[in-house]
Amino acid sequence: PWRGYDQDFNTFTLNNAHVAISTEYGGSEFTLELDFGSNAMMDSLLSTGTADILSIQEAFIETELGSSFGLKMGKFATSVGVEVLEAPENPVFTHGYLFNYAMPATHTGLLVTYEEDTLAFEAGIVNGWDSVVDNDNDPTFYANALVSGSGWDAMISFIKGTELTVERTLFDLSMTFKPTNDLEVKAEYLSGSQESGPTVKWSGIAMEAVFGRPGSVKFGVRYESFDDSD
Q1: pLDDT band for position 1 (50/70/90)?
Q2: Rounded mean pLDDT of 215-220?
Q3: Are 59 and 31 within 8 A, CB to CB?
Q4: Measured in whole angstroms, how far is the alpha carbon of residue 36 from the centre of its chain?
Q5: How many angstroms separate the CA atoms of 121 and 108, rounded?
Q6: Facing residues of 184 across strands?
Q7: Cα–Cα separations (whole angstroms), residue 221 to 36, 134, 149, 208, 209
Q8: Which residue intervals of 63-139 are DSSP H helices?
Q9: 85 to 48, 225, 230: CA distances (angstroms)
Q10: Contacts with 188 (C-beta within 8 Å, 6 or more apart), sequence order
Q11: Chain-wide mean pLDDT for the chain?
Q12: Is the pTM of this model over 0.70?
């Protein structure tokens, strides 16, 4: 019951049939990604409160504003954390506690982006956590910055806004290290709070390691600690 996308057992399940379409035109890139199956039910339940067999996982446009700046508009996967929405791209196939319970999976809104050499940045306003339609008519601020070096990168993410009638804040620091061609290590620290009468707080850490070279068999392992006493 504590897993988000793979709760069923003793049954054959179509977790996900995924269709992705992307094209470029006139300096803009259009992306549409659809999910069919139990993952789609989870995604649509988060976004609209209704469990549908088909969901629009992502649908967004990225357009250039000069050599380094751009705009990103629509529904897109979050950049927060060390895990990604596409489960097979994670070192461990199942999503962890932090991804399922401590952060949003998608955003719908408008971001200004910047990318040049070792620095990438995006910031803007979104409808909140996994909300296609804003549930309070009050936009949420979302930003993250990625700094890259030789064999490492670090990303800081920040989200703050009203969800329904409560003020919610999230801070995340994620780092990736590649000490050798055969080893990649990721580490994450997350802290969140919500003003709902008394202040509710949660925090967690996660570490992932992947052994193996690209194009070969890989082995992944994850450790997590999640504290949400309220």
Answers
A1: low
A2: 86
A3: yes
A4: 19
A5: 17
A6: 210
A7: 28, 36, 24, 6, 5
A8: 97
A9: 18, 20, 26
A10: 81, 82, 98, 172, 173, 174, 175, 204, 205, 206, 207
A11: 90
A12: yes
Sheet holding 119-126, edge to edge: 17-25, 28-36, 54-65, 69-77, 106-116, 119-126, 140-149, 152-163, 166-180, 183-195, 199-211, 219-227
Residue pLDDT, tens place only, 28-81: 999 999 999 888 888 888 787 788 889 999 999 999 998 899 999 999 999 999
Structure tokens at 184: 């990649």
Asked if 204 contacts 227 with a C-beta cutoff of 8 angstroms, the reply is yes
Long-range contacts, stretch 173-182, CB < 8 angstroms, 24+ apart: 174/80, 174/81, 174/82, 176/82, 176/152, 177/151, 177/152, 178/151, 178/152, 179/151, 181/213, 182/211, 182/212, 182/213
Closest CA to 146 of 171, 124, 117, 103: 117
User: How far apart, in whole angstroms, are the C-alpha atoms of residue 32 and residue 13?
Assistant: 24
Q: Write the single-letter amino acid at 195.
A: E
CB–CB of 83/98 below 8 Å?
yes
DSSP per residue, 158-169: EEEEEETTEEEE
Residue with tokens 């806004």: 161
What mean pLDDT comes out for the span 128-155? Answer: 92
Rounded alpha-carbon distances, angstroms, from residue 52 to 35, 45, 56, 214: 10, 7, 10, 36
By CB neighbour count within 10 A (0-12 exposed, 13-18 middle, 19+ buried), where does 190 fall?
buried
Q: Which helix (H) or strand (E) holds 41?
A: helix 38-48
